[in-house]
Amino acid sequence: MGQSPLDTCDLLCLDLRHAESIRASLPSLDRIEVFAARARALSDPTRLTIAAALLTGDELCVCDVAWVVGQAQNLVSHHLRQLKVAKLVSSRRSGRLVMYRLTEQGRELTSAVMTFSVSPVKERNDV
């Protein structure tokens, strides 16, 4: 006989009171979409590297960010704009320079992403 999949219940049971309290505590779909957009903004390796540089360097001009991450300035500017749209970075003009820094949300999300250490998963072949 075949085994049941591990990711589904064999019996439909619902702790309605518990499930409803969890459902009621979830953020609205609008808020979830904002959170997902922020997470997507850091899903690109270049943007995550830029965010990590800003986390360490606090505030950097585009030239410095480009040198630190080893990418062309126009590419870094493009990624910084995407991080800005996601409200993960803010910018200010200082004379002829544009200075970037992580927002509080950007700092928190970057820290959370950079904190997780993923160890390689060994696959088992049960035959």
Going by CATH, the architecture of the domain at 29-109 would be Orthogonal Bundle
- Spatial order of the strands forming the largest sheet: 1-3-2
- Rounded average pLDDT: 86
CATH topology of the domain at 29-109: Arc Repressor Mutant, subunit A
- Beta-strand portion reads 5-15%
Helices, by number, come to: 6
Question: Main sheet?
Answer: 3 strands, antiparallel
The helix content, as a percent range, equals 40-55%
Find the count of extended strands (DSSP E, 2+ residues). Answer: 3
CATH-wise, what's the superfamily of the domain at 29-109?
Winged helix-like DNA-binding domain superfamily/Winged helix DNA-binding domain
Indicate the low-confidence ranges by residue numbers.
Answer: none
Structural class: mainly alpha
- The outline comes out as elongated
User: Any idea what the radius of gyration is?
Assistant: 21 Å
CATH class of the domain at 29-109: Mainly Alpha
Give a description of the structure:
The protein has a three-stranded antiparallel beta sheet with strand order 1-3-2. 54% of the residues lie in helices and 12% in strands. Helix 3 crosses helix 4, helix 3 crosses helix 6 and helix 4 packs across helix 5. The longest helix has 13 residues. With 127 residues, the chain is mostly helical. The protein has a domain of 81 residues: Orthogonal Bundle (Arc Repressor Mutant, subunit A), CATH 1.10.10.10. The model has no long low-confidence stretch (mean pLDDT 86). InterPro entries: ArsR-like_HTH (IPR011991), HTH_ArsR_DNA-bd_dom (IPR001845), Metal_resp_trans_reg (IPR051011), WH-like_DNA-bd_sf (IPR036388), WH_DNA-bd_sf (IPR036390).
